[in-house]
Design goal:
The complex is a heterodimer of chains A (328) and B (292).
Chain A: E1 2-15, E2 18-31, E3 35-39, H1 46-53, E4 62-71, E5 74-75, H2 81-87, E6 92-95, H3 109-123, H4 130-143, H5 149-153, H6 162-176, E7 180-184, H7 192-209, E8 212-217, H8 220-226, E9 229-234, E10 237-243, H9 244-249, H10 254-261, E11 310-312, E12 315-317
Parallel strand pairs in A: 3-8, 3-9, 6-7, 7-8
Antiparallel strand pairs in A: 1-2, 1-4, 4-5, 9-10, 10-12, 11-12
Helix pairs in contact in A: 3-4, 3-6, 4-6, 6-7
Chain B: H1 3-11, H2 14-42, H3 84-120, H4 122-137, H5 140-151, H6 155-181, H7 185-192, H8 197-233, H9 245-252, H10 261-291
The chains are: A alpha/beta (328), B mainly alpha (292).
């Protein structure tokens, strides 16, 4: 069953200085038990997408210009705040990039997890009992492999590490039992060992609970480990999307190719690292391929219009080299 | 950070330590004396109110009238020969009660108005804050005098009048805190948990903003005593013969400057308590804002 469907989503940031198109017609869909990765560099719009899906964009300055976000068949992008509150928690939950302020500094870990359990119980009209909720909280902490779960449950956020906070957030996600989990670079702020442990726990949880996951990251290696399929975002547009192995091992879009080339190999010395030239600049990209200014293969056709998504070898590629089709 | 560690940090510097001593002596004494007075009045045994005092604060003793400060009368005696220090001590619980209730009431009303203004924003913010401005636009003292003069000279009206002039500054503070806190990630996390706005404000925003309020409220305890004393000085406090610091200062003015202690001694006590609260509040701000 399809948990999330995003169709033609465009989000602008409107400030006194002008308008920035953060997302331009992004579409993707996530099914039960599926982990969909959204990969992109800083400024590609990936965090905007995550925030838009969980309805946490600050409006203003953000404005959803067009498109729809459907959660289990219900349009949520136009919902009023009181309605969206009903969807959150048991419907959509999110884990943030920066662990250090994700938990209320004045509440014990167990109380914050119990708070989520209380919401879930209330929605299913089940009686809420404080001590059994605390016991459940500890059980979830054990599931996410927190050593000494009973002790951690009694602590305040400043008394535990960033990796532990991310696990607590995952435990909260388990407590909420959402159908969709949005993860915005949940392991970026952590060291590599902790990252690997959390990813393993993550995968296990998804297999067990069958929740759909929107996993946002800039790290292709992480995406490769955890995602079933991925979408490469650049300039607010999906440039290439398809199954993970197709994209990682046989990239087609020049941007994806460039990204893959710029990952250092851990096994051999390969001389100077190739990098994509230039830097992303949102100016002057109207009506052309967003990657054209930095693309090594760019030619005249790239500036004739915005390339459409071409189906190539089990994925879609937004590049004129795979068919001269343009967005209307 | 536990309360003990806060106290330890306060005690490590002279000014906050002095403030801590003055404020705890004032409230400590007020609680003891206030309970005695309360039990005394409930059991129709008013003498219980001055068992700890040197003499009865109400009984005139004309032979002792207007004696200067000495070891037997630390602050001298008033026109009716009553010991001023005794009367000051007897009056302390009223001022303690007024300061506590006024500041507490100000925080309560201020949070109810200010937190939704900052958190929800939009029309709620406009309405709440313009309403606050309406009260801020009046000179506080004149508003309090008007309220008291309308309703009558009773402690409860004095307290109500003070709360009415007191909450607007807290409403502004709470709004500013709400604006800061609502952008923190854990509020998003609470939203994501499916909590309604009401619970987020009650369980996440108010507790988080109290840290900032503590030091401000401590300084304010002194200010509210000062304003209450001014009301009494103007003859709007609790009626005679009950002693009150402000009204004692005011009555003493008839005997100034020849019998200076009658007016200056109660005034001096007010000053000490107000400065004590200011020193403690200042110290608390340094400690709580993470200077340590």
């Amino acid at each position: 069953m399809e948990v999330l469907h995003v169709e033609g989503l465009s989000v602008d940031y409107r400030t006194g200085g002008g308008t920035l198109h953060a997302l331009k017609g992004v579409s993707l869909s996530i099914h039960e038990g599926e982990i969909v990765g959204v990969v992109g560099e800083s400024g590609s719009g990936k965090s905007t997408l995550a925030l838009a899906v969980s309805r946490l964009l600050r409006t203003p300055p953000a404005v959803q210009r067009e498109g729809s976000i459907t959660f289990r068949g219900t349009e949520i992008s136009q919902m009023r705040p009181s309605e969206i509150d009903e969807v959150r928690g048991t419907g959509i939950f999110m884990v943030f990039q920066d662990p250090f302020l994700s938990l209320n500094p004045l509440m014990r870990v167990k109380d914050q997890i119990a708070e989520v359990i209380a919401v879930r119980m209330k929605r299913s009209s089940a009686p809420f009992d404080r001590s059994s909720a605390e016991a459940e909280a500890v059980a979830h902490l054990k599931t996410v492999r927190i050593g000494d779960a009973e002790d951690i449950a009694e602590r305040y956020p400043h008394q535990i590490s960033g990796g532990q906070i991310q696990r607590v957030m995952l435990a909260m996600a388990l407590a909420a039992r959402p159908q969709l989990l949005v993860a915005d670079e949940p392991t970026t702020a952590l060291d590599v060992t902790t990252q690997a442990q959390i990813l393993a726990v993550f995968k296990e949880i998804v297999e067990k609970t069958k929740m759909g996951v929107l996993y946002v990251t800039h790290d292709l290696a992480v995406a490769g480990v955890i995602c079933d399929s991925m979408a490469v975002l650049y300039g607010g547009m999906v440039q290439e999307a398809g199954p993970t192995e197709k994209i990682l091992f046989e990239p087609k879009h020049p941007y994806t190719v460039g990204l893959m080339d710029s990952i250092p190999s851990k096994t051999k010395k390969e001389g100077p690292l190739t990098a994509i030239r230039g830097a992303f600049n949102p100016q002057g990209l109207e009506g052309i391929c967003s990657f054209a200014p930095r693309c090594p293969l760019a030619h005249e056709e790239c500036r004739r219009g915005v390339p459409a998504q071409n189906p190539v070898d089990g994925r879609t590629v937004r590049c004129v080299n795979y068919g001269e089709n343009y967005e209307p | 950070m536990g309360i003990l560690s806060v106290i330890r940090q306060l005690a490590s510097r002279p000014a906050p330590l002095l403030g801590l001593i003055i404020v705890s002596a004032f409230y400590g004494w007020s609680i003891v004396e206030g309970l005695l007075q309360l039990v005394g009045s409930l059991t129709h045994n008013t003498a219980l109110g001055w068992v700890l005092l040197q003499s009865n604060p109400f009984t005139p003793s004309t032979s002792n009238s207007l004696l200067p400060p000495s070891f037997s009368h630390l602050m001298g005696t008033d026109d009716l020969g009553r010991d001023i220090w005794t009367r000051v001590l007897y009056a302390a619980p009223t001022d303690a009660l007024v300061s506590g209730v006024v500041v507490g009431g100000g925080i309560l009303v201020g949070s109810l108005i200010g937190i939704p203004a900052g958190y929800i924003g939009g029309a709620v913010e406009e309405v709440n804050m313009r309403f606050t401005d309406l009260f801020l636009a009046f000179p506080a003292l004149i508003l309090a005098v008007a309220i008291e003069a309308t309703f009558g000279r009773q402690l409860i009206y004095a307290i109500l009048a003070l709360i009415i002039v007191w909450w607007p500054s807290y409403a502004r503070l709470f709004r500013a805190e709400a604006l800061r806190i609502k952008n923190l990630r854990f509020i998003d996390a609470a939203l994501l948990s499916g909590l309604p706005d009401r619970s987020i404000m009650a369980k996440h925003m108010i507790p988080s903003s109290l840290n900032t309020m503590v030091s401000y409220a401590t300084i304010d305890l002194g200010n509210s005593i000062l304003v209450y004393s001014i009301l009494c000085f103007l003859g709007l406090g609790i009626p005679a013969p009950a002693p009150e610091w402000g009204s004692m200062t005011s009555l003493g003015l008839y005997y100034f400057p020849q019998w200076w202690w009658y007016s200056l001694m109660p005034g001096f006590v007010i000053t000490v308590v107000v400065i004590g609260a200011a020193l403690l509040g200042d110290g608390l701000r340094d400690v709580l804002s993470g200077g340590a």
